[in-house]
């Protein structure tokens, strides 16, 4: 019985050495706020950022952030991204698992004699140590699959970080555009409120008619409505920006005031599409994922080989005769020769193949559509700027004519209202231009510099690192 006791003791010792200890991790149910300690942590993380596209920046939250700095801040702080990054640990664990060889299997048996007499009354036992030979056959393919999958996960995380950064950048520009529109709406409302008081006083003095007063009241009411609408949109965009940064709804994030671009010279579509497969992170991630699946298909095909286990055996029969030999276990692949697993993995490979092809086509379409929108908005902005210049001259003419009594006040307020609406429409067009520019960046998978005198140039002059 000594060999059996020794083997059992060895198994217990090995199991005890390799056991992991359990540690509870309670859920955190506290709301996240940007404390002073967090500010320093965020600043360091932003300055040490490692990303294929995004560059590290030096953040100073007290001086306000540019839209590009907000993009980096979102990558550092967004809670959804932290959950995505946890996938790295999972893929690394899978990589380790792919390189591990299977454990040895210890088999044992005891046979108790009965109705027997010496010398045939010894307790018989058998000990065997077996090892799965098939693990060696598939090991290289499994390791290759795990390595490619780890690369795919890393690039997929980088792609989601890029998407999150661009979404936060868009929100920052939207906030700046809406703040500009709100300033215009508030200025017009204040002017029309003042005009309403003047007209009311003139009516009281019988210098203006009730028709003049009605026109002034209508114009003032329209201005108030426009201001309230801008405030509502701004609050909604602020909430969305805070959400992308993982901040509470009432958190105040100071943004640096930058000038919205009035024109964007989009690179030729051909240049944006060229080398797209090797530049857009999601496409590169899909290629690595496809190569991982190729290795999985190969593993499944290698799994057709019959399962073979081999190892030494030690035994003693009831007559106390001891033997040493070799044990062999071999599956007979009569019914199951891994055909189901092979079919499943080949179908998965075909799915990834089609998904990659579809994503390539969609990426090209996104680039073409965004470039087309940029060109169209450029023309709209140019027409709107010309229209605003014309309306400004018209408003000035009406103002002079009204002072001389050569026109009615209704025409004057109508011209002023048209001018205010055009100015707000121009701000919205610039906002749309920025959105399409960022969409073009996202679709092409690279930074696209704005033209000179644009928001990007202004932010660069303020010391911002792209």
Q: If you had to describe this structure to a student in words, what would you say it looks like?
A:
- The protein contains eleven helices and four strands; from the N terminus they run ααααββααααββααα.
- By secondary structure, the chain is of the alpha+beta class.
- The protein has a single domain (33-100, 133-303, 338-455), classed as Outer membrane efflux proteins (OEP) (Up-down Bundle), CATH 1.20.1600.10.
- Strands 1-2-3-4 form a four-stranded antiparallel sheet.
- A hairpin with a 5-residue loop joins strand 3 (308-316) and strand 4.
- Helix 4 (79-99) runs antiparallel to helix 5.
- The chain starts with a helix and ends in a 5-residue tail after the last helix.
- Residues 452-466 have low confidence and may be disordered.
CATH class: Mainly Alpha
The DSSP helix count reads 11
Averaged pLDDT? 85
Strand arrangement in the largest pleated sheet? 1-2-3-4
Outline: elongated
Cα Rg = 37 Å
Determine the CATH superfamily: Outer membrane efflux proteins (OEP)
Low-confidence stretches: 452-466
Keywords, separated by commas or semicolons:
single chain; 466 residues; alpha+beta; Outer membrane efflux proteins (OEP); 4-stranded antiparallel β-sheet; 65% helix; disordered C terminus
Topology:
Layout: H1 2-18, H2 36-47, H3 67-77, H4 79-99, E1 105-111, E2 124-132, H5 134-204, H6 210-244, H7 269-273, H8 281-302, E3 308-316, E4 322-330, H9 339-403, H10 409-444, H11 455-461
Antiparallel strand pairs: 1-2, 2-3, 3-4
Helix pairs in contact: 3-5, 4-5, 5-6, 5-8, 5-10, 6-10, 8-9, 9-10
């Amino acid at each position: 019985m000594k060999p059996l006791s020794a083997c059992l003791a060895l198994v217990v010792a090995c199991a005890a050495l390799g056991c992991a200890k359990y540690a509870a991790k309670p859920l955190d149910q506290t709301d996240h706020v940007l404390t002073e300690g967090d500010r320093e942590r965020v600043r360091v993380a932003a300055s040490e950022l490692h990303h294929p596209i995004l560059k590290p920046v030096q953040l100073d939250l007290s001086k306000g952030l540019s839209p590009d700095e907000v993009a980096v801040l979102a990558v550092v702080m967004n809670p959804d991204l932290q959950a995505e990054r946890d996938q790295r640990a999972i893929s690394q664990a899978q990589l380790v698992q792919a390189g591990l060889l299977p454990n040895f299997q210890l088999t044992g048996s005891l046979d108790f004699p009965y109705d027997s007499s010496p010398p045939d009354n010894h307790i018989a036992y058998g000990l065997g140590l077996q090892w799965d030979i098939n693990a060696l056959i598939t090991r290289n393919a499994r390791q290759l699959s795990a390595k490619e999958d780890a690369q795919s996960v890393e690039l997929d995380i980088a792609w989601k970080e890029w998407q999150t950064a661009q979404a936060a950048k868009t929100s920052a520009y939207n906030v700046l555009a809406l703040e500009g529109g709100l300033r215009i709406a508030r200025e017009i409302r204040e002017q029309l409120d003042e005009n309403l008081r003047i007209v009311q006083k003139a009516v009281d003095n019988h210098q203006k008619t009730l028709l003049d007063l009605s026109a002034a009241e209508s114009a003032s009411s329209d201005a108030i409505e426009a201001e309230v609408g801008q405030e509502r949109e701004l609050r909604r965009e602020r909430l969305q920006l805070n959400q992308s940064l993982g901040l509470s709804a009432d958190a105040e994030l100071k943004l640096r005031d930058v000038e919205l671009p009035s024109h964007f010279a989009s690179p030729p579509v051909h240049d944006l599409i060229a080398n797209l497969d090797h530049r857009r992170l999601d496409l590169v991630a899909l290629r690595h994922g496809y190569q991982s699946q190729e290795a999985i298909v190969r593993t499944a095909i290698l799994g057709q080989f019959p399962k073979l286990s081999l190892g030494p055996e030690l035994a003693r029969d009831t007559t106390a005769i001891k033997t040493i030999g070799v044990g062999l276990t071999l599956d007979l692949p009569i019914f199951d020769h891994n055909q189901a697993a092979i079919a499943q993995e080949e179908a998965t490979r075909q799915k990834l193949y089609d998904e990659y092809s579809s994503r390539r086509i969609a990426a090209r379409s996104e680039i073409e559509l965004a470039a087309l929108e940029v060109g169209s908005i450029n023309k709209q902005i140019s027409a709107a700027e010309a229209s605003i210049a014309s309306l400004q001259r018209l408003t000035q003419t009406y103002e002079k004519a009204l002072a001389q009594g050569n026109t009615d006040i209704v025409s004057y307020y109508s011209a002023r209202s048209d001018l205010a609406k055009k100015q707000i429409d121009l701000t919205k067009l610039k906002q749309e231009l920025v959105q399409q520019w960022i969409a073009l960046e996202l679709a092409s998978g690279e930074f696209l510099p704005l033209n000179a005198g644009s928001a990007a140039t202004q932010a660069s002059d303020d010391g911002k690192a792209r």
